[in-house]
Amino acid sequence: MVVKGDEIAWNNPWHFHPEIEIIYCIKGKGTNFIGNSISAIEEGELLLIGKNLPHTRQRDKDHYLAHPDDAPESIVVQFREEFLGKDFFTIDEFRPVAALLNRALHGLKFRGAGHPKAIDKLYSLQDCDPAEAVIELLGILHMLACSQDYAYLNHVPYPTESNENVTRKINTVYSYTIENFRNPISLDDVAALTHHSVSAFCRYFKTHTRKSYFQYLSEVRIAYACKLLMEGNLDISEVCYASGFNNFSNFHKQFRRIVQLSPGEYRRQGKSKMPGTG
């Protein structure tokens, strides 16, 4: 188990790892990229990121250029699922925690304000000796396992991959996609990253992620479109093109396939849930 301060939680490249990660944002402005979920970082949010779930958290460059003394703060805890032994979480008393870690493969977001005891324990972890830290972490996981106050960040869990060479290649594709999804991307572009022919890359990517590359690319673009729709600064056609789509009909089709709502329905539903509305 590793407890880390702020820098590990911000501006890392798009990556994934076998450690499960708890991130508590004390303060900061920027964007979460977690699996296919793209959302503004909220102060006080508590994230549980499952093993091998790709993620990065990027600072708001404009804000920190304008406010250079306003440094972000986070608490990050990383641990492997088997850190107490392979079968520890299979005993009856810890089955709820095992279920929590399984849900974390989707990425989970908790409201920090609704879990003050868990937050207190996260702060105390930084000053604990190793044995005390393990006990405190188990307490945090038990509290989160019993909570119903969370939201999934992804509709389906990401596949896990333990082969180091495959992990590196898929990470390269994920990173390239996150950096370039607003622009046209061809299969030739991404196949070259892994030194495959286009047909071999398509088989390779689907074998290791259980989805086609263009399905994954659409999910990333739709996640970004959801973020733009909630920000409310663009009309729906502008959101379509700002998210990397070049055809409004296809954007609408992919949005409904992934989100189960039209873009307009999603925007209206989201606004109705905002404080002080509806």
Task: Tell me the layout of helices and strands.
Blueprint: E1 2-4, E2 20-27, E3 30-34, E4 37-40, E5 45-49, E6 55-59, H1 61-66, E7 73-79, H2 95-103, E8 108-111, H3 116-125, H4 130-146, E9 150-152, H5 164-180, H6 187-193, H7 198-209, H8 213-231, H9 236-242, H10 248-259, H11 263-272
Antiparallel strand pairs: 1-7, 2-5, 2-7, 3-4, 3-6, 5-8, 8-9
What does this structure look like?
With 278 residues, the chain is an alpha+beta fold. The chain has two domains: 2-152, Jelly Rolls (Sandwich); 164-272, Arc Repressor Mutant, subunit A. The chain contains eleven helices and nine strands. The protein has helices spanning 61-66, 95-103, 116-125, 130-146, 164-180, 187-193, 198-209, 213-231, 236-242, 248-259, 263-272, and strands at residues 2-4, 20-27, 30-34, 37-40, 45-49, 55-59, 73-79, 108-111, 150-152. The strands form two sheets. Strands 1-7-2-5-8-9 form a six-stranded antiparallel beta sheet, covered by helices on one side. Strands 4-3-6 form a three-stranded antiparallel beta sheet. The N and C termini lie far apart (44 Å).
